[in-house]
Amino acid sequence: MRARYYYIIILIPVLLISLGSNGCVFNVDQLEQGKVPDSGGLWLGEPGDSKTDHQLPQTVYFCDEKLPLDWPSARERLEAEFLLAVNHPAQVRLWQRRAKRYFPAIEAALKAQGLPDDLKYLAVAESDLRPGVFSPAGAAGIWQFIPSTARRYGLKVNKLEDQRLLPDHVMAAGLKYLSFLRNKFGDWALAMAAYNAGEARISRAQADQGQTSYYQLRLPRETERYVYRIVAIKLVLSQAGQWGLTDTTPSGLYKPVEYQEKTLTFDEPQTWVELAAKMKCDYKALRSLNPHLAKRETLKGGPYLLRAPKSS
Fold first, then answer.
1. Amino acid 173: pLDDT
2. pTM for this structure?
3. Of 25, 27, 164, 291, which residue is most buried, by most CB within 10 angstroms?
4. How far is CA 289 from each of CA 40, 62, 134, 136, 150, rounded to the nearest angstrom?
5. What fold does the segment set 259-309 form as a domain?
6. Displacement of CA 43 from its chain's centroid (Å)
7. Is pLDDT above 90 for 99?
8. Rg of the Cα trace of the chain?
9. Are 164 and 141 in contact (CB under 8 A)?
């Protein structure tokens, strides 16, 4: 028994050495708490040196609003989110590549509505620009709408259809909601905080605490980090070259997907295989273009908003 014990004691260090730095898995909370083992200079599996001491600019604006970085609490919170983002090169690279697909439509919509271009970074913070992601609280899509807010802005969310998963539809709803919140609370920081925590939570915090500034309110932990995280994402993506993270997306990849929309009603039930054959397009491409109908194996009745590849 004692021989087996000593064998185990000897084996553990050998296994740890064989695993190397890539054998440890950690998350942001561990990183913040200082519980992450030394990874030998490599961050999140991407090879190369990572400089962890990048400095924040002295002055930072978001949506043309100046952050109060002369307040130590504000500067320290922004610095924490900035360092976590800038030293996560693999995640930054994914943001950059997905942005090639989704930012053009978002930027055009923001410009058309006279809204600040910076709001596109809120979508990155919400979903990492993944249109099919769901949160534990039931929010979905690039702009992470909960069902009640989605219905409030005209999106269908039911057992058969979930339009939150259509990037352009949920984008239009997200921008309308942000405009409403900006008008209600008077500045973009509070509008974004309300987008995260809910209008009632922000209004109640202001009334209870006698404060009107987002930067002085005591809020749920996620909401207290929320605006700083969005600003940090802007700093990293808009000045990527300054941090050694120049966008290297290969030309021709991650382009916006071109499609055509049709509203159809079916007299007879239609399977996706039948629809793909009629539209002369790839089955998988057709299903991928219609995530809002993903739970339906057969379409009957209608009307349905259906998307097909542009060439079909």
1. 94
2. 0.81
3. 164
4. 42, 33, 17, 24, 20
5. Membrane-bound Lytic Murein Transglycosylase D; Chain A (3.10.350)
6. 20
7. yes
8. 23
9. yes
